[in-house]
Amino acid sequence: MKQIMQSWRHVFKLDPDRPLCDEALEAICMSHTDAVMVGGSSGVTYENTSELLSRLRQYEVPCVLEVSDLEAIVPGFDAYMIPMVLNTEQTDWIIGHHVRAVEQYGYLIPWDRLIPEGYIILNPDCTAAKVSKALASTTASEAAAYAQVADKMLQLPIVYLEYSGTFGDMELVSDVRRKLDDSRLFYGGGIIDANTARLAAAVCDTIVVGNAIYNNLEQALTTVSAVKRRN
Ligand code: 1GP
Fold first, then answer.
1. The domain containing residue 27 runs over which residues?
2. Are 82 and 114 in contact (CB under 8 A)?
3. Rg for the chain (alpha carbons), in Å?
4. Which band of pLDDT confidence, cut at 50, 70 and 90, is reported for residue 68?
5. What is the DSSP pairing of strand 10-14 with strand 206-209?
6. Ligand 1 centroid – CA 231 distance (Å)
7. How far is the CA of 189 from the centre of ligand 1 (A)?
8. What protein family does this chain belong to (predicted)?
9. Per-residue confidence band for 119, with pLDDT thresholds at 50, 70 and 90
10. Cα separation of 61 and 67, whole Å?
11. Ligand 1 centre and the CA of 122: distance in Å?
């Protein structure tokens, strides 16, 4: 899965805490998106995550879980994305929760299916920023420095610029990408239609579309063909 992830251009992120009817789920899974990521910053439980996974498994699309709560880790996903929030002073969100998880559940962890993500949270108003106490004042040059630490020192396979809920600063995203050698750059935040998808896809490797699924599914679906070339 780590290798396959290198080719992803488009990901839909589904929140297990938000209702989604069967027709909408089918449209998402059959949209030719590269993967469905399951995750959210609040209200994610074992029950709602496993229920969503079993519905997703009717389809062939790769399914990955972005782990935010130790109690909600469900077996059976293709891969497990492990966020490490880089721009926080709360060490729990950088490494603390991770250490406790390994201490407690190390023997159960499918190490070959773990994909760590170096998160840089840039919308101070989003839930992830509040939960992880991300540094709201992170500047463009700091973001680029965090990204280089993730890429060149920590050798994380993914750097994730998180603007959840708002469309970000594409100049900053572009600057960050230019600094990366090996990490893949994920961008998420405020992609609502083909136009915003194209703008973001031009300056990152992989776009993540979340809220738009729940706000305007028809427009959200147009983000796939906007960024993926069909053979
Ligand atoms: C959220 O990055 C994703 O974690 C996507 O952001 O919900 O704003 O699309 P949106």
1. 2-227
2. yes
3. 16
4. confident
5. parallel
6. 28
7. 4
8. Belongs to the GGGP/HepGP synthase family. Group I subfamily.
9. very high
10. 19
11. 12
Is residue 64 within 8 Å of 1, Cβ to Cβ? yes
Q: For 170-207, how does the pLDDT look when each residue is reduced to its tens digit (9 = 90+)?
A: 999 999 999 999 999 999 999 999 999 999 999 999 99
Task: Specify which residues 160 forms β-bridges with.
Answer: 119, 186
Task: Give the span between the Cα atoms of 111 and 158, in whole angstroms.
Answer: 16
For residues 129 and 123, the answer to whether their CB atoms sit within 8 Å is: yes
Domain count, the chain: 1
Q: In whole angstroms, what is the distance from residue 159 CA to residue 84 CA? A: 10
pLDDT of residue 46: 95
Q: At what angle do helices 170-179 and 194-201 cross, to 10 degrees?
A: 30
Binding residues for sn-glycerol 1-phosphate: 13, 160-165, 190, 210-211
CATH of the domain at 36: 3.20.20.390
- Taking each helix axis from N to C end, the angle separating 22-29 and 217-227, rounded to the nearest 10 degrees, works out to 10
Dist CA 83 CA 66 (whole Å)? 7
Least confident of 34-43, 103-112, 207-216: 103-112
Contact between residue 25 and residue 55 where contact means Cβ atoms under 8 Å apart? yes
Q: Which amino acid is at 184?
A: R
Is the confidence at residue 1, as pLDDT, over 90?
Answer: no
Token digits for 125?
A: 């108003």
The helix (run of H) or strand (run of E) holding residue 35 is strand 35-38
